[in-house]
Amino acid sequence: MGDWFLMWTNNRDVSESGRMDDTAGTTERSDEELVRRANAGEARAFEMLYERYCDWAVRTARRFTGDWASANDVMQETFMYLLGKFPGFELRAKMKTVLYPVIRNTALAMKGKY
Fold this sequence. Notes:
The chain is mainly α. It is built from five helices and no strands. The longest helix is centred in the middle third of the chain and has 23 residues, at 43-65. The two termini are 25 Å apart. The model is unreliable at 8-24 (pLDDT under 50).
């Protein structure tokens, strides 16, 4: 994951560096644009993807885990997996289509059924 991972986890305030404006709403930018910007190293772009899909990911994970605490763990693991794909990630389908199998497989692995 290297420098890109460290930048995202350690430098959450990227607006001061001249990168993506923190005040822009997550619905104003397409997933494709956010992926492109995240691939270019803009930590805020990944954060916006996270903000856009984290609630959906937890609700989806709960269907597999049966409880909210485990579902939250699955959501976190899902986004750590996704973060590891950057830079170089190509969005070839809708983001939910990409996330769903990761959520399912992570939840099943946590339950010991995978």
